[in-house]
Automatic annotation (TrEMBL), chain A:
GO terms for cellular component: plasma membrane. One of its GO terms (biological process) is amino acid transport. Its main location: membrane. The chain crosses the membrane at residues 6-29, 36-56, 62-83, 95-119, 139-158, 189-213, 219-243, 255-276. This is Branched-chain amino acid ABC transporter permease. It is a multi-pass membrane protein. InterPro entries: ABC_transp_permease, BCAA_transport_permease. It comes from the Bacteria. It is found in: Cell membrane. One of its GO terms (molecular function) is transmembrane transporter activity. Signal peptide: none annotated. Belongs to the binding-protein-dependent transport system permease family. LivHM subfamily. It comes from Neoroseomonas lacus. PANTHER family: AMINO ACID ABC TRANSPORTER PERMEASE PROTEIN (PTHR11795:SF445), BRANCHED-CHAIN AMINO ACID TRANSPORT SYSTEM PERMEASE PROTEIN LIVH (PTHR11795).
UniProtKB/TrEMBL annotation, chain B:
It comes from Neoroseomonas lacus. It is found in: Cell membrane. This is Amino acid ABC transporter permease. The chain crosses the membrane at residues 12-33, 39-59, 71-88, 94-115, 127-149, 169-187, 216-236, 256-279, 291-312. One of its GO terms (molecular function) is branched-chain amino acid transmembrane transporter activity. Its main location: membrane. It is a multi-pass membrane protein.
Amino acid sequence: MILAQVVLNGFLMGAVYALFSSGLTLIWGMMNVVNFAHGDFVMIAMYVAFVVFTALHLGPVFFVPAAAMLLFLLGVTVYFGLVRHVMRGPMLAQILGTFGLALVLRYATLWIFTANFVSLPENLLGDVVTFAGLRLEPSRVAAGIAALALTIGLHLLLTRTALGSRLLAVAEDRNAAMLVGIRPDPMQALAWGLGAACTGVAGALIALFFYISPLVGESLALIAFVVVCLGGFGSVPGALVAGLTIGVVESLTSFWIGPAFKDVVVFVLFLGVLWFRPQGLLGKA
Amino acid sequence: MSAQIAARALTRGVGNLVLGVLALAALLCWPLLVDNVFYQRIGALVMLSALSASAWNLVGGYAGQISIGHVLFFGCGAYASLLGYTWFEWAPMVGAPVGIALSLLLATIVGTPTLRLKGHYFSMATIALAELARIIVVNSPVLGGGVGVSGPALPRSMADLSFISPVPYYYIFGGVLAVLLLFTWQMSRSRMGYYLRAIRGQERAARSLGVPAPRFKLYALLVSAGFTSLAGSLYATMVGFVDPDSGFGILLSVKMVIAAALGGAGTLFGPLVGAALLVPLEEFTNAMFGGGGTGITYVVYGAIIVFISRFAPGGLAEILTRLQAWRARRAG
């Protein structure tokens, strides 16, 4: 019974991992740009949730969309202000640019909010419910289900709509897409906006049950990198499967070995997959 | 006409030579010109940072395989030195070969599978391994845990290489850097240098011409890892203390990349130039805005990096070419 509880908690956390990793994989797969500020996007969204809640006393119904909109704007701004120019340089310039951005976001937040850990009240969405012997924390359940739905929604948007087809066309071949009349610039800006908005929602959802600190993005970014590599670059279903796997693996490791070692197992798993299936679980060879 | 061109080439050659000699003289005399310990310390830190950035440059610049986990090797060197002292009372540099051996082993483990692949796999695997090392060290009391390990508090003999003044370190680091740069220069003119540049330019084409790409990428990584580990041991010798963040922190890896990229990745002196700009920048912003954990230093530092990558994605080399083009336009 305890094991079922552990797996469930891991699954719910994994769904949130899947959502913010989908944001990263969308940008990564479309433009082959690695956003090193991705974890800090999550962190910013967490602070948006915190500020909206403490200053305006508004609940998740308000702060989740607020985080999504603000992060969408941030993503588009970063694309037009930085990434578009950085892309004409070598790959090193992308690492430099996005990492510099990460430093600015992370330490500006540290300067404003100090290094203290903060969190939202645990029972924001109500008290723990016991169902069939499982303890269900409403905040985790809501976050997990919302994240799962949004990840699937993003996948449907990419594969079932004309807009998604245009996005994927630019990802596949920029020049060919231009030949058939798709302007790549707005599409790439949209990819940044969408990717960041997904990250924003995920951040606001994590904030429901996770500690908030300016440096929290660092470890979350590493998880996102692992999820994207495991799932295959640019693959949203891959990110979903890999995110859920990582969540459950982390949870089981914490239970069996100890919480300090959960990342050890995740990274060892990652290196193991690189040895045997480098294109990722669902990636194309 | 041709005499004019020859004369111009000659003056440029002589000019470059004079400039080179002046730069070398300035490097050799720097600690003697300033008698302020703060500046002398910055000098030593520049040399150390240039050393690790130049080591990174072998695999990241020449071979074009961007490692973002090079701190893994740096940490191995630093920890091997100080753990050698803690466990066996060795002089810190005695542990250096152990650190190098461990680094070569880890480089083989991470490099063998990922260097066969294209794209970001190598970068991601290096980050993962470095972070893995950091977590393991934090959770192992034998390795100092989260607190870290210290070197000898007082020098027991000359072998400890423990000095109060930063000047001896400046020359030690500079000497090792000179060896590395000499090696890099030799390599860049050898078969391996051409292979690596071919791989960086277009790996598929290089392979189709018979370049054993994975093997040579691995060679570059091994040499690079060895020198980075040595830099870590030297750092530990100077500072006499290392903890998980100063030994395996991800920020350190990125600083190596940034120094090399700023000065020009894949050029001989690029990492030295980059380090000579970045280290003083960091030390001065620290001194101006104060450490104190407010983080303003890193905001300034990050903003400058963003600014550089936004307006000159090719690093300083790009700025120089643009400047030359501008001067040529104005003259012509």
